[in-house]
Amino acid sequence: MSRHDPHISRFIRTSMGQAMLDAETEYALAIAWRDHRDEAALHQLIEAYTRLAISIAGRFRRYAVPFDDLIQQGNLGLMRAAEKFDPENGARFSTYATWWIRASMQEYVMRNWSLVRTGTNAAQKKLFFHLRRLQAEAQDDPARREAVSATVARELDVPVEQVEIMLGRMSGPDLSLNTPQSGDEDAREWVDTLADDAAPTEARVLDAMENRHRRSLLHDAVRALPERERLIVARRHLVDEPATLNELGDEMGISKERVRQLEERALGRIRTHMKRESADPALG
């Protein structure tokens, strides 16, 4: 769908014309949704902040993805934020929702660019978005284009070689492993050249069982934490782009030092829980 589609334009105009919520109204709506699953309250909350999704979507237009898709992803981020938002922590919903909107759009961009070329871990995502921003800014300046690698390496404090590798992934075409190695129709495919370095089946099964057990212990340990500590651990350790102590302090209405203390206590509780539950009863 084109960004000039009249339906999208009308939707944007309508959303940008919505009245902003004051803190009291926002709090009441969030409580109604959290405690009573009031869908009308949720709708009003999302509708009021769709303008936020539209605004953030504008910053992602350089990644050559449909603008209306970005807005849709932003609304999904809003929904996730509404589901997880605690109105009693003192933060405004707009502040909390911004992170979820941006994260949803970044995931969408990465999925639609090419997982093969760009990778999926947090460091590679950060490198990808920095490179795309600088490439867009230097599009009409050959001198700046040549300096992109050095600039990104300096800003992110990573080796220039890593930046060059990412640039190569971003610029090269995707190639199927089923592509023949030559023009001969009977030629061997590239997939046939890949060595199978996988561990024996028995070892893989045992490793998978151990990993599932550890994940289950970790899940139980996090779930047993008090609500504030659980939120801090999730936002600091269980997402691709961890929140800073300052960001969490602002959202929760406490100092960053208090966030650090709660985080340290939560991690200690998790370690104790996992150590206790992992112990062999026969050795106790």
Give structural attributes:
284 residues; mainly alpha; Four Helix Bundle (Hemerythrin (Met), subunit A); Arc Repressor Mutant, subunit A; 14 helices; 69% helix; disordered C terminus
Structure, described:
This protein is mainly alpha-helical and 284 residues long. It has 3 domains: 6-113, Four Helix Bundle (Hemerythrin (Met), subunit A) (Up-down Bundle); 115-172, no CATH class; 202-279, Winged helix-like DNA-binding domain superfamily/Winged helix DNA-binding domain (Arc Repressor Mutant, subunit A, Orthogonal Bundle), CATH 1.10.10. Helices cover 69% and strands 0% of the residues. The chain contains 14 helices and no strands. It has helices at residues 6-16, 23-36, 39-58, 67-84, 93-113, 115-118, 122-137, 142-146, 148-156, 160-171, 201-223, 227-237, 245-252, 256-278. Helix 3 crosses helix 5. The longest helix is centred in the last third of the chain and has 23 residues, at 201-223.
